[in-house]
Amino acid sequence: xxxxxxxxxxxxxxxxxxxxxxxxxxxxxxxxxxxxxxxxxxxxxxxxxxxxxxxxxxxxxxxxxxxxxxxxxxxxxxxxxxxxxxxxxxxxxxxxxxxxxxxxxxxxxxxxxxxxxxxxxxxxxxxxxxxxxxxxxxxxxxxxxxxxxxxxxxxxxxxxxxxxxxxxxxxxxxxxxxxxxxxxxxxxxxxxxxxxxxxxxxxxxxxxxxxxxxxxxxxxxxxxxxxxxxxxxxxxxxxxxxxxxxxxxxxxxxxxx
Length: 257
Description:
By secondary structure, the protein is an alpha/beta fold. The protein has helices at 5-14, 26-34, 46-49, 60-72, 92-106, 118-129, 145-148, 157-173, 185-194, 215-218, 235-251; strands at residues 18-22, 39-42, 78-82, 110-112, 134-139, 177-181, 199-202, 210-213. The N and C termini lie far apart (46 Å). It comes from Anabaena azotica FACHB-119. Keywords: Cytoplasm, Magnesium, Metal-binding, Pantothenate biosynthesis, Transferase. Pfam families: Pantoate_transf.
């Protein structure tokens, strides 16, 4: 049976860990889904795989294009799509329009928005009222890279309290789950214990209700790994060797035989 937002909440209540990864194309999405991943995030981290230095330049059109491909490859997992920078911050009507296009045009079940400040809480409240499932995201928010950098957030009492309060406010706004990115493990544990919705950690310790990583990091395809990622295989080296072997055989007239 396909995974639903309500099922994720039930799994939190049951203590069942949630497995999440990113996907940007049909082939990888199909593999992740068949392997049993519960939640597939079409993340704006795709920007880096498209050659951008940060997530900021990626457009809604690019996200829609890749999300359609991902959804064509998925039968079971819940698909969530990031709304890219400046496609939801300008106004509530802009956010509803962008999120509505994602659900109408791709087949995804939910969207993810970064930040928990008051204006974002209001935006998410309206999205949920419009029938659009929303995943929240607090802690390190990559779309604020020029403001926050890529360093761990919530290390001081003041910033920890702010992130904690943002998480509570987002739950009250109606998000069905929360991404906690690159915050201290004890802060992530406090948030996880306080909220009734599942928390999905990325660099936030082992006390979250689930974990997400960027798939290219897991597979060893990224040029640089974040400090909290774990590389389970080195496909970059494997692919390089395969292409070199192919090139050698072509030049030596060994392929085709």
